[in-house]
Amino acid sequence: MTHIDHYAVMGNPIAHSKSPMIHALFAQQTGQTLDYRAILVELGQFNAAVKEFREQGGKGLNVTVPFKRDAWRLVDERSPCASLAGAVNTIQLRADGSLYGDNTDGLGMVRDIRDNLGVNISGKRVLILGAGGAVRGVLGPVLQEKPTELMIANRTPERAQELADAFEEQGHVEGCRFDDLDGVRFDIIINGTSASLKGEVPPLPEGILRPDAFCYDMMYAAAPTAFMRWAEDEGCEHISDGLGMLVEQAAESFLLWRGVRPDTAPVIKAVREALSGNS
Questions:
Q1: Looking at residues 59-87, what average pLDDT do you find?
Q2: Cβ atoms of 142 and 192 closer than 8 Å
Q3: Active-site residue 124, yes or no?
Q4: What is the predicted pLDDT for the residue at 151?
């Protein structure tokens, strides 16, 4: 009888998760024997859910909203990336019973932007919209790419400045309010707010994009998000959503758990087709 290793993603809500499909495709592609399921966890029950999963012989977990901070607190050891991010999205359940936490969101986004989309962050002026957990999770890897400047804009400027202060040793990073962006132009704008999925876009001034600018939404949906539509209206020709980031961060988790890196391109294509109802 073939031994099957068990993995899962925990969140609330979780029914929409594409992670089981992504990891099934990774396993098939790399010849790994495993199963991966989505687990709905009630609020306040994360630690108990992890304990139960470990007792059932689970090997690894992905963690999504709203439990990434809980995961960060729970693990015994954190990667440098997770320590900086203040959040854990990947847990390795080690044989000795300890929990190792990583955050693959930022690396996944950088890989998507740099390797899949061919956009170099190095030497660019970068603006990130939002100052929540999603943004904090990607700042370290973005700064490691050595942009000339990284600006964090948020409705509450104090939160943006707090983030900038937390990452000041990693590179040139500043926090500001949206009003402060008048007259400033950027090579890359990354949307880290979920407002885009509700049809809202932060109040950005006209003329904020440099020629040949690139706009990236960390969110994704079947149709272009509100931020992507805004970028198109502003004349931007290089626009992407965050579906590739989702697959790339999953690939980083898979590498940590299984020691093999899957080829993400065919998986991104498959998930995109499933999302648009063409599968």
A1: 96
A2: no
A3: no
A4: 98
